């Protein structure tokens, strides 16, 4: 599906156009507005097509999922469109840009919200159809907006869909539940008490607490801004020189006035302070200047792994090296009771020396031991089937995503990247393990590694810890062999970190 003509083991270089197409792919969907939901889903016995979903949902399904596909796998079509609508709704509601770590409070609200949007109608199940997802007792009006950039699954709680009082009551119950089911032997950081106490703080108190935990230096005096690296939903990232030791750092500048849930930042900073690993883009310090929070991080001057996979061909030994380093980060996060939930090449940053570090903890979930979460987060193309199909999921979603990232390193892009996000969701749910076009060109060890990552049955899928022992990783080349790939990609993309 990559569109590359064969050359060498993994084919020829990816074009810049394909790189651009890859980013544009996720921006395609523009949605209608004001859709009334009366859900009573059934399958037309003649055409096999779904009926009874909101008109806008059906329009989406019917334009992107064929009648035969709907008929063959109606559940996958329904799950995909539900998930998709949830994503769009969240995309519009997202107004909390900085989320290096997601707290239990956010996840709990997210759980409640997804249930409300998607599943609570099950309470009114129809008796005449297996497919029924019920009928709402009252009309709901949902506004849809086109998602921006790549199709990620934002998790900030919507102000529109959840009454604060109800959310807090439900949250208290869930937090209590989670505390009760916590494993005594689990070493996860127990953060909930602090989160709950923060959630009671007023804006003024939050600023006071931020002042207390941030470095007292004036960032405008201490750092010299060199150049902007990019602007994400989470703020602007730039390179700066730290006058304290002349080191170069990456700084994320967050405008606090645009944050509706400032208390989350307190938790995030505290969590980040406690998470240091050689394969994570480590937090260095936080600074407060009026309404701006500057978060200083290690600077990775090699750009993202996406730049490399889309532009140059990687050898198996180089892929093994990146997998090993990423797995070390993932295993570390898992050992701390945290799921990353958004492992993909965009979130793996490289140093010019070949250092590999995982970043963007904006979708992390704190978990307790092997406790499973019922939330749907991540980026559709990298998403594990159990996430799309709304089954309970746990740490192993990161292992699936790592498998998809390995496919990116082989093929230049994840499976279904040329499909719309909705169709990709359907295919993930319906097909399960994706086909890998260059499968026959891979070594048996690499094939086995991918097999262990991409098991649809979560129990059959290896853990990050187990994968670190896999023989494929013994083939890893030295990290410095990544440097020529990074340089080649930077040259093609005209990127420079000086
Ligand atoms: N520590 C870092 N070192 C080098 N580059 C970085 C670092 N952190 C972020 N970047 C780069 O800066 C740009 C913006 O990063 P940011 O994380 O804000 O963007 P994003 O991931 O697209 O957005 P978001 O995560 O907020 O949705 C990206 O190109 C990213 O690769």
UniProtKB/TrEMBL annotation:
<keyword id="KW-0808">Transferase</keyword>
<keyword id="KW-0723">Serine/threonine-protein kinase</keyword>
<keyword id="KW-0418">Kinase</keyword>
<dbReference type="Pfam" id="PF00786">
    <property type="entry name" value="PBD"/>
</dbReference>
<feature type="compositionally biased region" description="Polar residues">
    <location>
        <begin position="143"/>
        <end position="159"/>
    </location>
</feature>
<keyword id="KW-0963">Cytoplasm</keyword>
<keyword id="KW-0547">Nucleotide-binding</keyword>
<feature type="region of interest" description="Disordered">
    <location>
        <begin position="1"/>
        <end position="26"/>
    </location>
</feature>
<dbReference type="InterPro" id="IPR000095">
    <property type="entry name" value="CRIB_dom"/>
</dbReference>
<dbReference type="GO" id="GO:0005737">
    <property type="term" value="C:cytoplasm"/>
</dbReference>
<feature type="region of interest" description="Disordered">
    <location>
        <begin position="120"/>
        <end position="162"/>
    </location>
</feature>
<dbReference type="InterPro" id="IPR011009">
    <property type="entry name" value="Kinase-like_dom_sf"/>
</dbReference>
<protein>
    <recommendedName>
        <fullName>non-specific serine/threonine protein kinase</fullName>
        <ecNumber>2.7.11.1</ecNumber>
    </recommendedName>
</protein>
<dbReference type="Pfam" id="PF00069">
    <property type="entry name" value="Pkinase"/>
</dbReference>
<keyword id="KW-0067">ATP-binding</keyword>
<feature type="binding site">
    <location>
        <position position="252"/>
    </location>
    <ligand>
        <name>ATP</name>
    </ligand>
</feature>
<dbReference type="InterPro" id="IPR017441">
    <property type="entry name" value="Protein_kinase_ATP_BS"/>
</dbReference>
<dbReference type="InterPro" id="IPR036936">
    <property type="entry name" value="CRIB_dom_sf"/>
</dbReference>
<dbReference type="GO" id="GO:0005524">
    <property type="term" value="F:ATP binding"/>
</dbReference>
<dbReference type="GO" id="GO:0004674">
    <property type="term" value="F:protein serine/threonine kinase activity"/>
</dbReference>
<feature type="compositionally biased region" description="Polar residues">
    <location>
        <begin position="126"/>
        <end position="136"/>
    </location>
</feature>
<feature type="domain" description="Protein kinase">
    <location>
        <begin position="223"/>
        <end position="473"/>
    </location>
</feature>
<dbReference type="InterPro" id="IPR051931">
    <property type="entry name" value="PAK3-like"/>
</dbReference>
<dbReference type="InterPro" id="IPR000719">
    <property type="entry name" value="Prot_kinase_dom"/>
</dbReference>
């Amino acid at each position: 599906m990559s569109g590359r003509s064969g050359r060498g083991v993994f084919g020829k270089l990816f074009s810049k156009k394909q790189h651009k197409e890859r980013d544009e792919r996720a921006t395609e969907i523009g949605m209608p507005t004001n859709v009334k939901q009366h859900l009573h889903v059934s399958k037309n016995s003649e055409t096999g097509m779904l009926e009874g979903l909101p008109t806008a949902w059906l329009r989406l399904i019917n334009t992107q999922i064929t009648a035969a596909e709907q008929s063959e796998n109606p559940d996958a079509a329904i799950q995909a469109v539900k998930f998709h609508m949830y994503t769009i709704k969240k995309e519009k509601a997202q107004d909390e840009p900085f989320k290096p770590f997601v707290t239990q409070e956010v996840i709990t609200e997210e759980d409640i919200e997804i249930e409300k949007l998607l599943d609570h109608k099950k309470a009114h199940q129809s008796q005449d159809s297996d497919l029924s997802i019920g009928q709402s007792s009252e009309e709901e009006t949902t506004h849809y907006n086109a998602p921006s950039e790549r199709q990620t699954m934002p998790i900030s709680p919507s102000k529109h869909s959840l009454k604060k009082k109800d959310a807090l009551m439900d949250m208290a119950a869930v937090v209590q539940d989670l505390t009760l089911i916590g494993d005594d032997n689990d070493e996860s950081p127990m953060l909930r008490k602090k989160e709950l106490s923060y959630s009671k703080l007023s804006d003024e108190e939050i600023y006071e607490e931020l002042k207390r935990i941030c470095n007292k230096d004036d960032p405008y005096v201490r750092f010299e801004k060199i150049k902007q690296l990019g602007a994400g939903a989470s703020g602007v990232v730039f390179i700066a020189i730290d006058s304290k030791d002349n080191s170069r750092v990456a700084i994320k500048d967050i405008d606090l006035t645009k944050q509706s849930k400032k208390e989350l930042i307190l938790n995030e900073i505290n969590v980040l302070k406690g998470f240091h690993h050689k394969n994570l883009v480590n937090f260095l310090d936080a600074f407060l200047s009026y309404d701006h929070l500057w978060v200083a991080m290690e600077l990775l001057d090699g750009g993202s792994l996406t730049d490399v996979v889309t532009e140059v061909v990687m050898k198996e030994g180089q892929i093994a090296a990146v997998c090993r380093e990423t797995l070390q980060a993932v295993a570390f996060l898992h050992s701390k009771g945290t799921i990353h939930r958004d492992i993909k090449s965009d979130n793996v940053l490289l140093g010019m020396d070949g250092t590999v570090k995982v970043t963007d903890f904006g979708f992390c979930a704190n978990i307790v031991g092997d406790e499973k979460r019922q939330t749907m987060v991540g980026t559709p193309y990298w998403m594990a089937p159990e996430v799309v199909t709304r089954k309970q999921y746990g740490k192993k979603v990161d292992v699936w995503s790592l498998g998809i990232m390995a496919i990116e390193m082989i093929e230049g892009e994840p499976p279904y990247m040329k499909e719309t996000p909705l169709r990709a969701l359907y295919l993930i749910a319906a097909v399960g393990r994706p086909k890998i076009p260059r499968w026959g060109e891979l070594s048996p060890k690499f094939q086995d590694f991918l097999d262990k990552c991409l098991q649809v049955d979560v129990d059959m899928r290896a853990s990050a810890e187990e994968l670190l022992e896999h023989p494929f990783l013994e083939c890893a080349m030295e990290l410095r062999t990544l440097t020529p790939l990074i340089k080649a990609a930077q040259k093609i993309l005209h990127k420079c970190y000086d």
